[in-house]
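In the laboratory, one determines a bound structure by crystallizing the protein with its ligand and collecting diffraction data. In a computational setting the workflow is compressed into a single prediction: the sequence and the ligand go in, and a structural description comes out. We illustrate the idea with dinuclear copper ion.
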Amino acid sequence: MPRAALHGLLALAAAPLVIAALTACGTTPQTTLEPTTESARRSLWLLQFVFWAAVAVFVVVEGALVYILIRYRRRRGDGLPAQTHGHTRLEIAWTIAPAILIAVVAVLTVPKIFDDAQAAKPGDLTIQATGHQWWFEFVYPDLGVVTANELHMPVNTSTEIQLQSKDVLHSFWVPRLRGKLDMVPGRTNKFVIRPEVVGTFQGQCAEFCGTAHALMKFTVVVESQADFDAWVQRQLDDRTQPASELARTGETLLASGGCVACHTIRGTDAQGTIGPDLTHVGGRSHIASGVLPNTTDGLRQWLQDPQAVKPGNRMVIPSLTEDQIDALVAYLQGLT
Ligand code: CUA
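The predicted complex, in structure-token form:
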């Protein structure tokens, strides 16, 4: 075998190993392979069934191909092989076999689709999730809570998520909790999530929605009923009064700047509804729709240049001085 061909063959053989190594390493907070709900477990089971069925088909077909290529290869002195036309029994067999396999997949999949589409029961918690370019708004209509980019849910409780969009198609996806569902302008898609494990789960917009699509993330906090109730009580309060001179300066700055046109901070004159509600932004784990940690550095980075963090986003602000950023950071961190 020529050396170049050998190298090509080796590269081809190594490719799956390299891909496996690249995709399997590191932490994977958005994995469908570690389900924590009944719905997600059944999705994974279906995925595995279809995968192993495909592996079996691959092995049988490729095995037969390789065997036939070697066993019946042309040898020195061979003449023209016997010419045949069609093989009715073989053709019927390889038509029926895939049809049966696909029928089995359908029989297993269709009930799951219907189960996943089941409506909420009276008394279930309701959350309206609205997609915006490029952040998530969460409203709890029965509780009076409005928040953004961080969803809180009580464990072992069925919660109906009502999906909407303010602008373009988005998709709501928390891989460890459930399959994805589109957020469509002018239409409400619904599904029920019943989380079984307390913890924090990463969500992601899963439908291309513009330049910052990949940076449209959110966090789901699943907590005990008591912790959830305490969180709700906290959210219902107006903003915490600024505790320091610096934070007071921040509030004045925010009120006199353009911020109030887009953001709401209850208890102040800020009543805008274009951007996320900031009344309790200090209590969230991330800012900028999951892109930056909610730390002093994260807030500074965002306020220095929001367009550099998330290109194309609608927060267009004049450049701020270091002192102004210090005051705003102090204020926002106090809004717990
Ligand atoms: Cu929203 Cu992609």
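Residues 302 and 309 are 7 Å apart (CA to CA). Keep in mind that any predicted model is a hypothesis to be tested, not a measurement.
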